[in-house]
């Protein structure tokens, strides 16, 4: 329970620190010492403090996000491999069907050629030729 809570905080912090709004905030924070030069040491102290606790926090968040990403990628890979196996079975079945159709076609063609030789061109009977 504590681990899940910590991971949720780390992920949330990683997403917040990775946003453009945080980039804008730090950008403007960098100009504060220009406005208040006598407090520069205080701002530097707070800047270093934020770096010291935020970097490990972001690393934990990245690790949690990577685990989720890896799980999703594995599920996608498994689904694709299942589909590939299904497609291979379907291809094998269709190859067999195609071979059967070709054999039937050859038989029909041979019978047609056999019948064509004795067919009357006028009325269609086998008895006489036109």
Please tell me about this protein's structure.
The chain contains four helices and no strands. It has 130 residues and is mainly alpha-helical. It has one domain (2-117). The longest helix is centred in the middle third of the chain and has 78 residues, at 40-117. The protein is rod-shaped.
Produce the secondary structure layout:
Layout: H1 2-17, H2 20-29, H3 32-35, H4 40-117
Helix pairs in contact: 1-4
In short:
The protein is mostly helical. It has one domain (2-117).
Distance between the termini: 96 Å
Radius of gyration: 38 Å
| Count of strand segments | 0
The share of residues in extended strands comes to under 5%
Instruction: Estimate nothing, just give the exact number of structural domains.
Output: 1
Q: Could you list the spans in which at least 5 consecutive residues all have pLDDT below 50?
A: none
- Helix-strand pattern: HHHH
